[in-house]
């Protein structure tokens, strides 16, 4: 079976049909991208492709390897920047399963062996945009030296060196400034990246004129990105290859849903007219969209996870196929999370509807135990704000969120230890409790005191809720919360998760 590359594409363009919407390897390089992984190829580079398909951007991307041990750049260059993106999922109640050959990447560069090639890109007047996705840890300050002949290790260091070289070559021309659009999942990522670049410039004693040029003529945009990109389908690659008719070492799989919020002016929107090709790109303040995403999508994940797992489910889709858990999640989202969100109601409802569709994606295996990582902090950041809003505005306790807190405490009940790892049990099956070691030991100690008869479940719940180290505030002071969580937890312990959940659903449905 032949491998996807320029020769294969040109020789088989008629056979490939709808897989190739547009291909023009003469388009100029207009974007430098720090990162070449699955997400950027399934998100940013796909978006650039959609613009190129309609003749609205007419430019390509230079992808820079972010770490010394990357393995993607050789594959990019071997395939002439070409790769296949497969989008699978549910959108507006329709099953989507579509493939497209993406040609928006011109080449990849390993900066640790070819740093001079990265600097040559900085000299290109056609370059206008910088995109990045180097993991959340990538946008962090690292003090490091730079001699000009080798790439800095950190992404902000590389960007600082890149910008400084461009500033010098173009004599500080205001028109040479770039639009920097980081895609790392860090709050205020653009502002933070700019701050780090300026700090590094001071470390390296770069001229004040350069820092003035960075401040005045380069835009650093705060963003929010979302799309699940699962990447290379190694478990069923033969199925994909047989369907496509060729081998693709960069084959990338993702969901149809996407959201890109860019905090920038109209000038940037005009240069990147994503909205003109029907993409879900929003221009403006990131915070409302971040609140919607964290409260609804992430909140629902955290609400579902311990309940569904202890009820016998392993994946999000399995949970959504269970009518009791499905009902529980619908109630939690539409009757508890949405009513207290201070965001656009129509936009919020549309996002909630998309979340339900995505949870039911038949092509994605999203494992609950993966979502369960660091669940205490996730509850604090994703669900606690909703609970507190209910208390402050309605003087009530949102009962599904309270039940999920009880389920979380049950999930964190250690039943075995293997070395330094503690875990629980679901029937005869073991599962690891993956959280900060101090948190796991704290829950172990609380449950041991219950098992030894030193505490009742209600007393243990009181102790857990008043622990300000866990929650950053005393939750035991919230009227009725300890009592309700303890009642739910007692029911889970005595009768099992499925039985306890059914009683909650029945009570809530009947309006009690």
TrEMBL record:
BP GO terms, sorted: D-galacturonate catabolic process; mannitol catabolic process
Cellular component annotations (GO), alphabetically ordered: cytosol
UniProt superkingdom: Bacteria
Gene3D superfamilies associated with the record: N-(1-d-carboxylethyl)-l-norvaline Dehydrogenase, domain 2 (1.10.1040.10), NAD(P)-binding Rossmann-like Domain (3.40.50.720)
Keyword annotations of the record: NAD, Oxidoreductase
Mannitol dehydrogenase N-terminal domain sequence ranges: 30-269
InterPro entries noted in UniProt: 6-PGluconate_DH-like_C_sf (IPR008927), 6PGD_dom2 (IPR013328), Mannitol_DH_C (IPR013118), Mannitol_DH_N (IPR013131), NAD(P)-bd_dom_sf (IPR036291)
Residue ranges annotated for the Mannitol dehydrogenase C-terminal domain, each copy included: 285-491
Alphabetized SUPFAM superfamilies for the sequence: 6-phosphogluconate dehydrogenase C-terminal domain-like, NAD(P)-binding Rossmann-fold domains
N-terminal signal peptide: none
Gene Ontology terms for molecular function: mannitol-1-phosphate 5-dehydrogenase activity; tagaturonate reductase activity
Catalytic activity: D-mannitol 1-phosphate + NAD(+) = beta-D-fructose 6-phosphate + NADH + H(+)
Name assigned to this protein: Tagaturonate reductase
Native source species: Caldalkalibacillus thermarum (strain TA2.A1)
